[in-house]
From TrEMBL, chains A, B, C, D, E, F:
Single Gene Ontology MF annotation: hydrolase activity
Protein's name in the database: HD domain-containing protein
Pfam families in the cross-refs: HD
Domain of life of the native organism: Bacteria
SMART domains from the UniProt entry: HDc
Gene3D superfamilies membership: Hypothetical protein af1432 (1.10.3210.10)
Keyword Magnesium tagged: no
Domain HD/PDEase: 157-293
Transmembrane segments: none
Length: 318, 318, 318, 318, 318, 318
């Protein structure tokens, strides 16, 4: 079965794919005819597709996030590859395909990632800090294994959020060894909490964000997480004025570094400075790694990456 | 008794004033001599002053925020008026002067201002909204009558914060009449809550801010107030996800309008847009009014006002 | 008759509408066929439309700004609703429809608005100021009742400019009561004059701006209005150096507040500061009000509003 | 007689100089003593100076802009050279010194410069354009020979404004030859008018700007000059709507190129684009030339130049 | 034969043109049909075109940069003119048309331009400077006559780079006469070297840039040219630390003036300041001249020009 | 002997210190008296000092960078501690003090640091890359052990540059393990080369930068290092067009990430993105670590740190 990433213009192919997006539209013909405007994906990538001969029954049969068997042809439309679907049917039990095989996901099993996060949480020596982190993780426990870290920016796949946390925890551990003046408890807590409210900020299914939630737009994950720390402290009986609560809120509030990037205060503790750079470095390097791994080896340049000043990455031939 | 605002170079004067700031310093002489570096103020303004002949006893006698009787001479130092103190003694009970006569304060008695704010709070028809506002006011009840709205920017005097709120409430009431689609409950609540955490953000005495608190620097009054709404909701048993709690947090979080001005989210409800402009208009017009009223009538231009793009205000002769 | 605002995909409808825009285009067919690319509107909103079967006679029959009877079908095109016109004919006298019923206009009759503006002008107590305002109003007298305040930004409808002025005058009156140090004459004059040259800057018909005039692009409404004050003063024999003329020019020149927003000088009189905020607050709140009232009640969010940092407005369910 | 530019720390000197600035101040001594805070200058440069032993008679004898004979010593104060005046007396008729010998001025006699400007004006072939230019020159006729082009930025000396115009006219003439599509009449007019209102914007004597005028602050030289074109057109009976009047206003209004630099519109005619670059190039190169010529040959670097992104200029040894 | 620039909607025409771009695409039909997506050009301008009835043989016959005879019809597509090709065949030897007649090129023969540049190079009196310039010119000798100065920004045609240099040399010569303190050798060298690496930065054929080279993206023409000066110095045995080498590198490195425009250092020699303004003025005025000459006389406004703050240029009717 | 860092106002002390800066100045007295304006330092920090009774012999005795024995008193001057020197004499051989004991230096011996750098260089597997790195290190071999990484920004002490490199190499090694797609050779080379030209950009002695060199100002360390790679390649016979040379230049040229921070191109290879973040993270965390370690334990806040958006760092009490 051909992977989406390998499809090139003029290819004819047949295989199972996921209907990531599907909308019924009408042509300009008289009378207008229905067609499907589709995004087909598998774990290697995604492509736009059209299915022109839609019957009334089809409209009751196909829905977003469904698995399908497709026969199609790739052609160029406005300089980008697009699939023209010749035949399509829903996957059946006997096809033996499973949704999770078709979505992009972190390179490590997300249950393992969550275990690592929890183990790190348990290793926080200060009890109150640990309890606050625990309280906040609990609020998103169900969504943590599946959520991406962003809509498109970086780690935008199943388990992306947990993967981002784990990689940051590794980097944080290295830094605490290299620079022992950093408080490891605080840095661990900051890394786990900094994006903990992302699942509240975005609506996602199977690691795919459909949109931002109302709360996400009106409050944002930064102020949301800061509020959860307040909630935890109130419920756990820890005074809001304690340096611990203030310090944890500060880590979360300042991690975007600048006001224009969404942080109402700038990093003013050693750990907050470290957190910002750990977050930025992990996000940017992951963008680079993902762009390189989803770009065909034959291409010298990746597509432009919005999070890197809209620059493309070049594959040096060294 | 001559008011500070009326003192001009070459004036000799005698009267009671407040030692707003006082530091002991040493001259470059050999051996170095102690002198006082002072800021003298009354309700009309303030001037720097020096007292050169400090005895050891003087150092035990004079402290910041104390009332004193001073005889002095005004001269120009680096193009600005400065007082050379010839004689100074602490005010005594029999002098019949009272601290509150010497500090700058809002033009309306601050207890009256607080009454207006509380009455407005009572007029909020939605019970949960009213209770949240009540909870937050309670947290600063003692400090509300005296606190300024800012260190130097605007309303920087005794009762300034309450005065700012009351003026904004008047403007808000006008707008709700002019544009009935605005929700008056929300706007009232937003006006009262938007700067409610300022007393936690800044350390002040008698309406004079000495500096920002640690919490103020690390969290800021915007995220602090948003956290208080969370705290109130948790204590009052109102779900954090309710549109009321989200809507109130949004008002507070967005009232500075832009990220670079400290708001992690931008106004996205009608009342949040209104709140931002009510706040900005009241602050800027008060800066203008205060600058004009503290500048001698003989001057065509006020000093430059930082909050107004560093422009001075001209007194048109019309 | 169904209002434009109420039309949803799949709706079939028939009624009278205004051809706000109409262009003849050709399809890609061989030989190419003519079709009409249309914007249909009524007072509730507008939608793009296509009429595919254009005869040579049709091309002589239909023109922009004409009233027509249309039968059509709404469908989605690139995720936005579009009308496919099945039948179209010009409105006839006996249809009893009138152009003014089909354009969007200010909620108050624009002749009444102009009367209010003139009455306010008459209430200016200083004679020279009043005469200058009178002179400038005269220059746009014919266009004042119909002109919008902007092309799309805010108050973009019949009478929008006069409506903007009247609302600002109300707000100005409130402020002069709240802060008596403001000069009411100047503020009234500033509000009436600040956008008085908009009808010279933009070409519009029935409240709909087609484009900016050459003069509008090369000089702009701010410098134009400032020039009109000069012209008025020269004709009325008032010295250009008088504080009145300088003060009025300053109000107009500075009302956009910053250089990057088009003001060559920044507000430096109390009334100029007030004028800027009155203008900004009225424009922004009107954008919010208009966006909410033209968005179907069923929608939680309005479309994004360019003038509000490209944010959409949320309808809190409180 | 030693020129100011040649004075170095430890130099003792005697000669005639101009009291560019003089203020009476008081020392911190008890009782305070009067002293003079002075800026001494000649045509080569200026230095701060102090005269410590001021008698009451001295205060009636010395004033700004007076010529004096001084004996003094140069020393370093806060890393900058300063003069300590040992002896000072007013210049007398028999000293045979004249004020104009002591001020910095353009390298060409300013009457000659004005003649060149007037001759260029006469060479404008379009009569109405010529008359408008003539009208505007008339308004500043008396001040044109002496005025500088700016307070400190560039051409800040006697005749600087006329010199700036003449150099720009030369460059404009070259460009019209190199690119014949440029309209020479317009470019000449634009160059003469672009800064014509500077004498109204700034108060200056003998080429030295003391401050900005009220009108200068409230309207600015750009809108002032645009208003003068309107005034000229009204008086000369040329319609304000004519392309000539609009085109000339556009040249003046757009010559600072960007809103943040004070232009309410951006250059939108060929001549307006040319004018902006001619102005910028002449101003910047003059800053460089003046900085190099007033910096001692022994120095590799000039002081930092504000108008050149605060960079200093290096004297390459080639 | 009708020039591209003169073609208007509804025009039918026949003539020879250059296939500047050509791509094979597929329609949405079932089965999809091939068509050509084309950009047709001649020396007067260019237009998009479609050829719908592509045979397999056609795909082997037509290629980019080939000359063709075309019969077509102009129509409007998305408000822009587009050509529908009815008939197309390759040009034959007997047609007597030559590629160079169909490309846009500088108004002066590019061999003459190169001669002028070389003659100027020979006139540099300092031997080492002259040799470095010579070395760098040698590196691009073959490409210098044909290369444009930019992809689309300015001088984007055959010989554009050399034409830009020559015009700048004229302006530089004028400036050295007007301001003799400028070092003519340095200015000549700076003008010739500043864009000398453009042919390495961009891939172009016949004056038409297809894209940036890898080296162009990774190093840029500024650092490339600076490196060439280093290379020249090493090969010629001139010390890298000499003021000559440093001064020439500085001219090249600083000519974009600001970091955000690509210069790692800002101009800090007189000639570097001059070079920046000569470059900017020539580029901007050429944009204006080219926009006016390629816009039909009947149009008042040119299209918007990206390099001029996205403003269009107005043709004043004077 | 009391360390500079421990001195508090009113302390009297005696000990050996380094005269980091010394200038002879004159008082305002008549006649003026000489005094020394001094910066005294040891390895813990530095303080300004004055010595008022300077004899002619003293002026021949004391010079910057000399060791002295001082008896003094600390007092507050403009709210900052300053030393009043009572007695001062040069250190003698028999005092047994050595210059290196008095300068601030990296926490690891700088010879060891250089060894680590060289060993890393040897571990680069690609021969040409290794040779280029070797060539560039050779150019600064003598200065590498002592040079700081910046004037004041970060690592501003003896061995600071080498220390910065070594810490970055550790972080780079970690990242190459965490993300094996990174090319370790390139990253090592990029880390060693990115600031290699700093010793050419700045003049320094004993780790203390006095100023920027002319070459440093005119070319900057980024373009300098890029030029050294060119020089190395020319000398070693490696083609300038090879991906190796281009890739190394790209690493150096892009490491400041943005044009406004001095990089003429932005990172466009994986290693260039990594290099930028490794550099930024190490510099910022070192600023934090240094600020905390040089701030007395008793202080909650460090001074403001320019490189951290001018924020101070808070010492959380956790």
């Amino acid at each position: 079965m051909t992977q989406i990433k390998q499809l090139k213009p003029q290819d004819e192919f047949e295989g199972f794919y996921l209907l990531k997006e599907l909308e019924v539209r009408q042509t300009n013909a008289t009378p207008p005819k229905d067609y499907f405007d589709i995004v087909l994906c598998d774990s290697s990538g995604q492509l736009p597709a059209k299915f022109w001969d839609v019957s009334p029954a089809d409209k009751e049969t196909f829905f977003p996030m469904g698995l399908v068997k497709v026969r199609g042809l790739v052609h160029l439309y406005r300089e980008k590859p697009q699939i023209k679907i010749a035949k399509i049917r829903p996957a059946k039990a006997e096809d033996g395909v499973s949704l999770t095989d078709f979505i992009r996901s972190a390179p490590i099993d997300s249950n393992d990632l969550v275990q690592i996060i929890k183990r790190t949480m348990e290793s926080i020596s200060d009890e109150e800090t640990r309890k606050i982190v625990h309280y906040c993780i609990n609020k998103v426990e169900e969504r943590l294994p599946s959520y991406p870290a962003a809509k498109t920016h970086h780690h935008a796949y199943y388990g992306g959020l947990a993967y981002h946390m784990v990689r940051m925890l590794e980097l944080g551990e290295f830094l605490c060894k290299q620079r022992p003046f950093l408080n490891a408890d605080l840095l661990k807590a900051g890394i786990i909490l900094h994006d903990i409210a992302k699942p509240e900020e975005m609506n996602a299914e199977m690691g795919i964000v459909s949109d931002y939630s109302n709360t996400g737009k009106l409050i944002g994950h930064i102020a949301l997480a800061s509020g959860w720390i307040v909630e935890a402290a109130v419920r756990l009986g820890i005074p809001l004025e304690s340096e611990k609560v203030v310090g944890l809120q500060h880590l979360v509030l300042s991690h975007h570094n600048l006001g224009e990037w969404g942080s109402p205060v700038q990093p003013q503790t050693a750990e907050a400075v470290a957190l910002h750079f750990i977050d930025a470095m992990d996000a940017k390097l992951q963008m680079v790694e993902d762009a390189l791994s989803t770009t065909p080896e034959s291409e010298e340049w990746t597509p432009m990456i919005r999070g890197l000043e809209n620059k493309a990455i070049y594959r040096l031939k060294i």
